[in-house]
Amino acid sequence: MYETVKQELMSNPLQHHPSHFQQHATSTTTATTVPSSTVSNSSSSHADTQDSTFYKSKEEFKRQMNFAGMIYSDAPCLVSTLPYFHVPDDERALHPEGLHLIVCVHGLDGNSADLRLVKTYLELGLPGTHLDFLMSQRNQGDTFSDFDTMTDRLVGEILYHIENGNLNPKRISFVGHSLGNIIIRAAISRPQLKHLLPRLHTFLSLSGPHLGTLHVVHAEVEEVRIIIATLAAGRLRCPRNLPLPVESTV
């Protein structure tokens, strides 16, 4: 086989010269790039048509709205790479009112992400304010513990957040949902947070059961309550010997 290939190469050496291969490859490449250039020109033409339609529609919109200003898309490039309402950290630190710590506490069977929208809206609504959020998570996954335990967890979490972050908040606010409001009320009454009481600013309570759940009556619970009250009053007695059911015979 080697001899056969060698004879073919020797019979026509110009055909297998490197320049011949290069010329052949160039012609092949040229032939295959024609369709792609056609597709590219077609796509470019379609994009130009869309851009032209967009600009015409935008100018018509501005004319109908009698809008004399500029629209964001009028700029040839991005005006700024920073997100909306962005305030540099150094400018936030110089805010005259100082750091505002906001503690968000979730409710029963909740987690630290439950109040994330509240955090987002506050950041958007107060863009220049130096805000710091503590999304409480010490009680998530174990919200059926007793109140003292959950209160201790929240108190420790607040103190750790301030100490670990080397924070000196001038104002402290709380945002609670459902059971979280009761835990907040218990936490701010603890002596460990007494030095922070003068800095309290806002308490936003969302669906907090501050008056208990007296008006939420379940039939089964009410029946049990009546039975217990009757037994305690001695008006209900259980017979010592209950009659057994008679077995039926077929």
Summarize the structure.
The chain is an alpha/beta fold and 250 residues long. It has 7 helices and 4 strands.
CATH class of the domain at 89-206: Alpha Beta
Count every beta strand, where a strand is a DSSP E run of 2 or more residues. Answer: 4
Low-confidence stretches: 1-6, 24-34
What is the count of helical runs? Answer: 7
Shape verdict: elongated
Q: In the CATH hierarchy, what is the architecture of the domain at 89-206 at level 2?
A: 3-Layer(aba) Sandwich
Pfam family, one: DUF676
Biased composition (Low complexity): 25-45
InterPro entries: AB_hydrolase_fold, DUF676_lipase-like, Lipase-like
Domain DUF676: 97-218
Key attributes of the depicted protein:
7 helices, Lipase-like, elongated, 250 residues, alpha/beta
Describe the model.
InterPro entries: AB_hydrolase_fold (IPR029058), DUF676_lipase-like (IPR007751), Lipase-like (IPR044294). It comes from Ranatra chinensis. This is DUF676 domain-containing protein. The protein has 250 residues and is an alpha/beta fold. It has a domain of 118 residues: Alpha/Beta hydrolase fold, catalytic domain (Rossmann fold). A four-stranded parallel beta sheet has the order 2-1-3-4, sandwiched between helices. It starts with a helix and ends in a 17-residue tail after the last helix. The N terminus is likely disordered.
